[in-house]
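R.M. (postdoc): so does anyone remember the format we settled on? I'll just put the structure tokens first.
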């Protein structure tokens, strides 16, 4: 796991540097848009591209060494994350309506539920079990909450990257202690890629996540938090990323 983390960190450092230079040369910059933005000059965007590409390049070969069932689950998870990244990237370029972004977040949340269904005690309404519906709704709400929390705190030097790193590290420790190898693998890769980006996001920030990065990171953090979690572990595990993301 340590080797995987170091490789993800080095790859992210290189790719984020490359993306930053391309953004500067192409004038893909983000001007201060509100009082909460402490940067005074236009700053390169598209930090999410470096994170997404680094994560994907590390996850695919790592997943290829796993049993077929686990490999397909991880690749399906990457596909959902790719959808979130693509929606954010399109929004960065063409400004999608908020309802459209929310619809995609909900769809990815439903997809995450079918990949990692949350097991709840039987809940009967008129003799019918509604536990799957409730579990799906919780998963969707969790994805939307974390994704938008990450999106809201982007734009302040080091806040989004630092919060994401703390969230991933915290959940990664919980998953490692519980023996969840896939969740730990995802955490190591994502933590390395986030720290590689954070090098360029500390004050004075020279790059921001914008929607493509914040939505992808938010989805992956929520997905890692849902990795094989039982209902009994839900209360103690899932609030960790949200608590960190809101401590700003």
């Amino acid at each position: 796991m340590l080797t995987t983390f170091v490789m993800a960190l080095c790859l992210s450092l290189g790719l984020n540097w490359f993306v930053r230079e391309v953004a500067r040369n192409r004038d893909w910059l983000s001007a201060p848009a509100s009082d909460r933005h402490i940067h005074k000059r236009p700053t390169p965007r598209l930090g999410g591209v470096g994170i997404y590409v680094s994560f994907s390049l590390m996850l695919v070969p790592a997943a290829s060494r796993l049993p077929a069932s686990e490999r397909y689950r991880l690749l399906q998870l990457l596909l959902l994350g790719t959808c979130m990244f693509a929606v954010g990237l399109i929004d960065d370029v063409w400004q999608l309506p908020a309802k459209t972004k929310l619809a995609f977040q909900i769809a990815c949340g439903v997809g995450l539920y079918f990949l990692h269904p949350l097991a709840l005690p039987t809940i009967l309404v008129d003799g019918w079990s509604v536990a799957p519906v409730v579990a799906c709704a919780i998963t969707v709400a969790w994805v939307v909450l974390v994704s938008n929390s990450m999106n809201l705190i982007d734009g302040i030097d080091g806040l989004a990257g630092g919060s994401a790193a703390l969230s991933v590290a915290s959940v990664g420790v919980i998953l490692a202690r519980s023996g969840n190898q896939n969740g730990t693998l995802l955490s190591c890769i994502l933590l390395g890629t986030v720290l590689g980006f954070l090098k360029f996001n500390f004050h004075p920030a020279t790059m921001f996540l914008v929607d493509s990065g914040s939505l992808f990171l938010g989805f992956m953090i929520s997905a890692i938090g849902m990795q094989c979690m039982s209902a009994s572990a839900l209360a103690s595990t899932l609030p960790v990323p949200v608590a960190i993301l809101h401590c700003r």
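R.M.: ...and that's the designed sequence above, right after the tokens. Also worth knowing: The CA atoms of residues 7 and 192 lie 8 Å apart. Residues 2-245 form one domain.
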